[in-house]
Amino acid sequence: MRTSCLFAAIVLLLSSMGIARGQEVPFEKSYSIEVGTGIRPIQMMIPPLRAARVPLASKGQDVDTDGAFYPVIDLTGVLRSGWKTEFTLTAGASWYHHRLVQYPSFGIDPDGQPRYDLEHGERIGWKDSIPAYSLTFQWRHLWNPSNAFLVYTGIGAGVTVAHFSKFFPLPSVTPVAFRYGGEHFYAFAELTLGPIATFAHGGLGWRF
């Protein structure tokens, strides 16, 4: 009796596995576009701030970091080339959105330049610095590609361009990331470190 039950259970298990295999959707190459944002990339912090201060000094102005922040935006093209493989190319930008401080002038120095009282500055508004740009290539491994809630990891390399003259090559590592959605639209969240963002990155995607 026990042997018959065990045999029946094995047959049922093998049959269900065969049915599951038969219901798998054949792989088809696909393309996606993702729009994301995240925590400011560390390598983008200093260059935009320096670029913002240089042209302001001659006007008796400076950057006020109180309440300032770094907007981050990026656009990614995704190629699904295998059942568990994706390749991505991401173009990103980050800049410094800060307050301006105007210092009053009180005369002319020996070179004919105005003197400014650096002790009595006044806030006069907000300004954006010159953006720093990045370009990143990454390979992704999809751990459970058939699920609506998908887990993946990624590794790659990229470059940050500051002032269109300084280039900073950097690795790109995404230890864990999550994606949730349907056939065409989805949301994603990543723990990542690289030219795109530092520590956290997320956004929306469209598969076509």
What does this structure look like?
With 208 residues, the chain is an alpha+beta fold. The chain has a domain at 29-58 and 68-99 and 130-207: Porin (Beta Barrel). It has 2 helices and 13 strands. The chain has helices at 2-23, 46-57, and strands spanning 30-38, 61-69, 72-82, 85-94, 97-102, 105-108, 114-116, 122-128, 132-142, 149-162, 166-181, 185-193, 198-207. The strands form 3 sheets. Strands 1-3-4-9-10-11-12-13 form an 8-stranded antiparallel beta barrel. Strands 2-5-8 form a 3-stranded antiparallel beta sheet, covered by helices on one side. It has a two-stranded antiparallel ribbon with strand order 6-7. Strand 10 (149-162) and strand 11 (166-181) form a beta hairpin. The chain is elongated. The N and C termini lie far apart (54 Å). The relative contact order is 0.19. The model is unreliable at 1-23 (pLDDT under 50).
Fill in the keyword field for this structure:
208 residues, alpha+beta, Porin, 13 strands, 57% strand, disordered N terminus
Question: Can you lay out the helices and strands and say which pair or pack?
Answer:
Elements: H1 2-23, E1 30-38, H2 46-57, E2 61-69, E3 72-82, E4 85-94, E5 97-102, E6 105-108, E7 114-116, E8 122-128, E9 132-142, E10 149-162, E11 166-181, E12 185-193, E13 198-207
Short description:
The chain has two helices and 13 strands. It is of the alpha+beta class.
What spatial form do the alpha-carbon principal axes imply?
Answer: elongated
Question: What is the overall number of helices?
Answer: 2
Mean pLDDT, to the nearest integer, reads: 82
CATH class categorisation of the domain at 29-58 and 68-99 and 130-207:
Mainly Beta
The spatial strand order of the largest sheet comes to: 1-3-4-9-10-11-12-13
Distance between the termini: 54 Å
State the share of residues found in helices, binned by percent. Answer: 10-25%
Taken as a percent bin, the fraction of beta residues is over 45%
* Gyration radius, rounded: 26 Å
Can you tell me the CATH topology of the domain at 29-58 and 68-99 and 130-207? Porin
Largest β sheet strand count, sense and barrel closure: 8 strands, antiparallel, barrel
